[in-house]
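does this look right to u?? cytidine-5'-triphosphate version
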Amino acid sequence: MKTIITYGTFDLFHYGHVRLFERLSEMCDELIVGVSTDEFNALKGKAAFFSFEQRAEIVSACRFVTKVIPEQNWQQKSEDVSRYDVDIFAIGDDWEGKFDFLKSQCEVLYLTRTDSISTTEIKDNLAIKAA
Ligand code: CTP
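got this back:
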């Protein structure tokens, strides 16, 4: 039984998110996704269009995901890795090197992001079209 955990905001769920989950699901039996809460996003200086509850509902509905948990702070990752007996911590390479401190607990993987798509880009493009 192999378990992977990943984290993110996953606002305006798009195919870059789907492909990340699909690639991860091919490497494990259980894919746990930590969805950033609205409070944690505020701390990161990020504001999501969809609420935490809505984003968690959407991520849960993705067939590659087996479990969704709230991501509430920076410190919880190490606790989650122990709690869920995680084999691999994985995240997009925009975070390259940032979570190497987990290497003492599990494998740490930085995956190449899908090209030319991001929540920010969607928001910017919609704003331009509306203007
Ligand atoms: N991700 C990805 N490919 C993309 C966009 C995101 O693999 N094209 C991954 C990120 O690397 C991260 C996860 O999806 O591991 C969640 O990223 P998130 O920040 O929620 O999505 P973004 O589209 O990058 O959102 P934003 O523009 O707000 O940063």
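Strands lie at 3-8, 30-36, 67-71, 88-92, 107-111. idk if thats expected tbh
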